[in-house]
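Folds vary. Our protein:
___
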Amino acid sequence: MFLYQVINEHIRILGYRGYSGFVRVPEKIQAMPVTELSAYAFSGGWGREKMMSSLEQEVLFCDEEGNPVQAEEKQLPPPISCEALKEIYLPETIRKIGNYAFYNCVELSRVECYSSINDLGSGLFTGCIGIRYLDFHLTGEPHSCLKEILSELRQELYVNYYSASGNARLLFPEMFEESVEHTPARIIIREMHGCGHMYRYCFDHTEFQFHKYDALFPHLLVQETKRVIGSLVINRLYTPVHLLEHDKNLYEDYLKEHIENIAKQALKEDPAMFLWLVREYGKDQKQFDSIVEMASKEEKPELLSNLMDLRRRRFPAKKRTFSL
């Protein structure tokens, strides 16, 4: 159940009440577009209380499909905020998100939104340490909010990037700042750790630049773990949107050298991507058999069946010959 207000023939969402932490904001309520999330909409504490107490217009209620409902305070389910919010989907109609809308939503792990949001409040994801996945849809509008969102999320982040030119899976490594005191000079020096900040600068104004993203691979090799490198490599090869031949060759060289470890990661992340990896790069029989043995330990009989069928076709048994 959503709490909302009507503002100049548009809808502002004030919060959500329910028993599921998986929230899908409707596009329309009463035939009017949902264009805004209020400040502190999904946060708790004094900020939200202050926001609610300062409202001058009537607060209305609707269900998950956007149908208006009548309800008394004692009939309302509990508010979904902070620890209760797990995933949230925002429709293409959203244009504005207020300050600290998701403040301290520590269990929030996935956000889905569109690039058409043109007003992002300050401190939007402050305290949202659990976000790992961003499903981002690029619209035809000139402005994109991806750069602003990435600057708010400094943890290791997996982005599903949907656009008219194709879909891509992108990994943005973790980044964090450290303040170090330089006692003789009596100054504080800010040091940046990880190469995540460089990956978050791959933009021309607000347009994401794939060639800049791929050109950072040498920095990734030096500064990140094999797990992060392997995950970025296979996701980029699996969804090669705007991938230049030179960068593709570098990714493939790394993958072939570490194929068994990367296959193990892919098996955990996405079985479909794992099968693609084996089909495309499992050309060495010894490596192939090692990967099959790895997959046999998982309780996925259909996956193993596909692998064994591929093995029979790729490495057929030689016919025995006898000489007298």
